[in-house]
Amino acid sequence: MPRPHCPRCSRPLDHCLCALIPLLPSVTRVLILQHPSELKHALNTARLAALGLSNAELRVGEVFEDLAALLAQPGYRPCLLFPGEGAQPLQQFATQAVDQPALLVVPDGTWRKARKLLHLNPLLAALPRVALPEGLQSRYRLRKAPMPGALSTIEAVVSALDILEAPAQFDALLKPFEALIEGQIAAMGEETFRRNHQRG
Q1: pLDDT (tens digit, 9 = 90+) per residue, 145-188?
Q2: Up-side HSE of residue 162: CA atoms within 13 Å toward CB?
Q3: Which residues lie below 8 Å from residue 38, measured CB to CB, with a gap of 6+?
Q4: Pair 12, 3: CB distance under 8 Å
Q5: What confidence score (pLDDT) does residue 66 get?
Q6: Which residues of 132-159 are buried (b: 16+ CB within 10 A; e: fewer)?
Q7: Scanning 35, 100, 134, 139, which has the fewest C-beta atoms within 10 Å of its C-beta?
């Protein structure tokens, strides 16, 4: 019989994270577009990010038919959080038009799946691209980072909001994420974790 899961955070009921999830206000609107392959992943951090922010929305799919309407929300400047060629530092974007808050669009999936989302949704590829500063360290100790500075979705959202809304801080959003990681390490056993995930 499958274990009962919390309908809100999607975790098994005996590992529900809802008590740790804050509800933080933000001037920035966050739109997370999640590839369906991430939906059932045990470490689904995009859902935690969306639940923890009052001005955030999570959509799951490959092609988003209503994307034009989502991006045209009045009063916001949309940008795509995706590093690479043509991406400007987020700090630079933040200082350009301070009278209009950002609509931060965040693709959620492996790099390959995130690129696929951009390919299948040309409106995304047309958005101004922004990137986080180099050298950020992930606390995600259970997945090997595909490249230096690669963060989980929730870490990327927190880092971006800390820049866009400084001096406000959004670290409280990481509490359920930290608990999620600790729970996974406890489940696999400290010895297995050290052998497979810690650098010698």
Answers
A1: 445 456 889 999 999 999 999 999 999 999 999 998 888 777 76
A2: 15
A3: 44, 46, 108, 109, 113
A4: yes
A5: 95
A6: beeeeeeebeeeeeeeeebbbbbbbbbb
A7: 134
Contact 185, 172 (CB under 8 A): no
Q: What is residue 12's DSSP assignment?
A: B
Per DSSP bridges, beta strands 77-81 and 102-108 are parallel
- Cis amide linkage into residue 167, ω under 30° from 0: yes
Residues 131, 135, 137, 142, CA torsion sign? positive
Q: By the 8 A CB rule, do 180 and 168 touch?
A: no
Distance between CA 139 and CA 30 in Å, rounded?
Answer: 21
Instruction: Enumerate the β-bridge partners of residue 108.
Output: 34
pLDDT in tens, 36-46: 988 777 678 99
Tokens standing for 110? 């492996």
| Per-residue pLDDT reduced to its tens digit, 115-150 | 999 999 999 999 999 999 988 877 765 555 445 456
Mean pLDDT to the nearest integer, 16-35: 96
User: Rounded distance, CA 8 to CA 17, Å?
Assistant: 9
- The helix (run of H) or strand (run of E) holding residue 24 is none
